[in-house]
Amino acid sequence: MVTSFVILILGFAALVWSADRFVYGAAALAKNLGIPTLIIGLTVVAMGSSAPEMMVSASAALAGKTDTAVGNAVGSNITNILLVLGITALFRPLSVSSTTLKREMPLVLLVSIAGWYIFSDNYFSFFEGIALVIGFVVFIAGLILVSIRAKNEADDPFVSEACEDVPDNVTTKSALFWLVIGMILLPVSSHFLVGSAVDIAQYFGLSDLVIGLTIIAIGTSLPELAACIAGVLKKEDDLALGNIVGSNLFNILAVLPLAGIINPSIIDPSAANRDALIMIGATIALIAMSLSFRGSRRITRVEGGILLVSFLIYQGYIFSQVA
């Protein structure tokens, strides 16, 4: 069991590092190929924080662990809002002024409800996975189109800060090197991570869904936590919150469908009866705390504390059901 925990920790570290290198190489290569910075920032860079979830879900689905893949996507969304945003707001209250985020937050709620609807019959089909992917393509195309056409979009802090993360002055040879390194290490690290997580789950009597909701979801959300804390410390509040909003959208539209496409199967009823509802509730709380139709809005330390306590209560409830 000690060996499984060591492999799990090393797997998380390798997964996060390789995802970062993959995104760095892909973004730099796209830049060198002449793709506009705005498009790279809103696609490759924005998707980077969800790369670990995508690889873990794909590996879990390939191993026949669809519940783990589902739990990873749903659990990551819950963790992003309740744990990551909660801790970040405790560091420093977040000001929300981005019009892009104000447009996307209701969309996060909409796709969360769609996820619940998919789970409601306790079966995740291939065509449901394809439908989510189509939704993802439409979302990305719409986001780029709106960002290009909007007159004041260049002044939007979320868009400008996302574009600033696109690497510059990187040679094509270096970009290809890091892209290949990431492509090799991502599947390898995710394979060992899922394998060790399954061993730990079996040892403690945890279900595939619970292991995805807890250990894996928290581990794959650590990059968001680091990015958000770094963002608020640099007073880039909209980028910090944008990491959460973007990650949650990608988790439902790009990560979750991998489970249904790769391994369509029956899923644990708790995914719909408990976890998807918690995800929807957390999303509603995020919207209530973030949106104001009279200018900017602040997510306070008190609200951050409420989110963090809610996460601890949720985790305690999950493990109490296992016991």
From TrEMBL:
Determine the domain of life of the protein's source: Bacteria
Cell compartment(s), UniProt:
Membrane
Q: What is its main location?
A: membrane
Q: Which UniProt keywords apply?
A: Membrane, Transmembrane, Transmembrane helix
Give the stretches traversing the membrane.
Answer: 28-48, 69-91, 126-148, 175-198, 210-233, 239-264, 276-293, 299-319
Please verify whether the record's keywords include Cell wall biogenesis/degradation: no
One Pfam short name: Na_Ca_ex
- The record places domain Sodium/calcium exchanger membrane region at 4-144, 175-315
Membrane topology is: Multi-pass membrane protein
Protein name as catalogued: Calcium/sodium antiporter
Q: Which organism is it from?
A: Pseudoalteromonas neustonica
